[in-house]
Each structure stands twice: as structure tokens, then as C-alpha cells.
UniProtKB/TrEMBL annotation:
Lineage: Bacteria, Bacillati, Actinomycetota, Acidimicrobiia, Acidimicrobiales
InterPro entries, per the entry: Glyco_trans_1
Keyword set includes Ribosomal protein: no
Gene3D superfamilies in alphabetical order: Glycogen Phosphorylase B (3.40.50.2000)
Pfam families, sorted: Glycos_transf_1 (PF00534)
E.C. number: 2.4.-.-
Keywords: Glycosyltransferase, Transferase
MF GO annotations: glycosyltransferase activity
Superkingdom, taxonomy of origin: Bacteria
Official protein name in the record: Glycosyltransferase family 4 protein
Coiled-coil positions: none
Amino acid sequence: MTRPLRIGFVGTELAPLRPSAGGLERLVTGWATALSRQFATTCISRFDDASPGTRYNTTAPLAQLVEGCDVVVVNNRPAWANEIDLPVVLVLHNTVEAWALPGWDATRHQLTTPTVMGPNVVVAAVSSYLARHVQEQLGLAALPVVLPPFIDPAFADGPRWQPNENSLLFPNRLLTKKGVLETIAAIKRVSDPRATVVFLENFAPWSQPTGEHLTLLEHINACARCRLEPRIEASATLANRMLGAQAVLAPSIHPEGLGLVPLEALALGIPTIISSMGGLGELARYGATVVEPIDDAGFAAAIEESTQKPPAIDVDGVRRDFGLRRSAEILAASLQEAILR
């Protein structure tokens, strides 16, 4: 009897490999769990997260941490993929500035030193937009595999939208790039005085608010039509909170790899307002409303339209295209490709 393939899943150094830590961490642990039915899987982190069954070491070389694995899944860290001689699937979730490459110049917003991926690395990206971006930034001969993220069962299998209040929900992290200030400007222009926006105090992966968070909190507290609620970690609780809102707002002003928050809202059938930045625009096909966030009048008009005449959402399409089974099957095929190289 042959032994099962041993797969190591490597998280980043930013947050513990727990589903509650953030979207990337939830995907990594979810893939590991799904593939554990067929393969031997382990999660490996360069962060002391004290999770049962997770190896961690902040000083040992990554090649040492993955000893005993047959193939490794590295997330968002191209340089780490090149530290490993084993077959590797590199999954990229965000654009280049999030990859922690030594050649990244934040001032000029460009790579000053090319990064060449080894022949043992199969590259995947979470959206078609991101695949094109990755090909350009890493100089790949072919487009990466498109590996769609999966929707948490709390959203994929949950009930469908039945609003019971006048508020709109902004469940994304409180960051300038997520469109917090643009949302505040838009809600001030909505004609219905009862319309309000609820922001969640979501600072992940930080445990305490940074200076940026504190500034945004001041702006939210200064707006009579905005209010704050505590961050919701449990997926089922967040899904229930979303279901009561009139709409979900995710108007990022910087490119997203895809955008899990609006994807989860669409899986519940909730009117969802997004920007077209990066992979977010790919969600328009499922019924998401696309706005230009800096056009606060247009943004406000979209809010009014979505609440007065909610758009049809292709819930079945979202749940089909972003199901765990499909996502895990594509990842498994990429792992087999890496092994055969």
C-alpha cells in the first residue's frame, strides 16, 4: 500500500493560521482540511500561533520546516517559494505590493529587482485579473492557473437575503484603501435620512488599532449617519449580520485580488456595491453593482437604487463557481502538475 501524498501548507508571517485570523488564513486552513481527506496535510507557519498540529519556527530556514513533505503550497510569498527545492504551488491572493519581495520599491510602486520563479514552482492566482497581473510582475511565459477562492459554508450553504433594517453594512477591514472615506462621503448624499452605514471595528490582522485605524474611526464617529459595531469573527455570526442589512458595501480604491467580503455577500443574495478595482470587477457578472468610489454622488445614487430596487443576484452561480469542492480540485490538479515537473 502506497503512502498518501504529503502536502505542506505555508502561511505568511502576518497572522496565525487560524480561520478567524483573516481571509487568506481561512483559505489556507480550508484547503488543508479539504485535501486531508485524500492526502496527508500539515500547516506550517513562520508565526508562533500555537495552533494544534501546526509547525512553527521563526528562525529556521523554510526548507527545514517543510522537511518530510512531498509538495508545498506557499501563499503570497514568491521569495519563499524559491527557498524550497521541493515541488511548490505558489498561490497569490493580492497584488505585488503584498508579496514582501525584497525588490519592491513602495515609493515608486514598482519592482526594482526582477523575481524569477524556479522551474519547480507552479504559480496560481485567485482571479483572472490577478493572473494577468502576476504574469506581468513575475515575467512568466504563461498565465498562472486561476484558483478561485472558496466561500465559507456559512455563506455558501446559508439562507438567502431578507433585510430587516435600513442600515447598510461595511464589513471590510477599516483601511483607507478599502474605501472608508468614500463611503462616508456617499452616505451623506443619500436622500433618505434613515439610511445609515454600519462599520465593523475590523482591524485584522492587527490586534490593536494603528494610527490609520484611529483616524478612520474619528471620521466615522463624526458622521451622524455612520455607526460602529464590534468585529465579528465567527463566519456564521457574520453571515447572519449581513442578512439583515439592506446592502453590503465594498468600494475598494486600490486593486483587490478578488475580494472575499463581497463574494460572501453575493453568496447570500445581498445587494453588493463594489468598485471595479482589480478582480472586484469580475463579480459584476453575478449582479454586484459597480461604482466609482470617488464619485460620491454616483455612489450615493447606486446606494439608493440598490435599496429601492434591489438587483437580481446570481446566488446559484456564485455558490457553484466558488464552492470548496471546485476550488480544492483545481488546487489538487496544480499540486499534481508541480510534482510532475
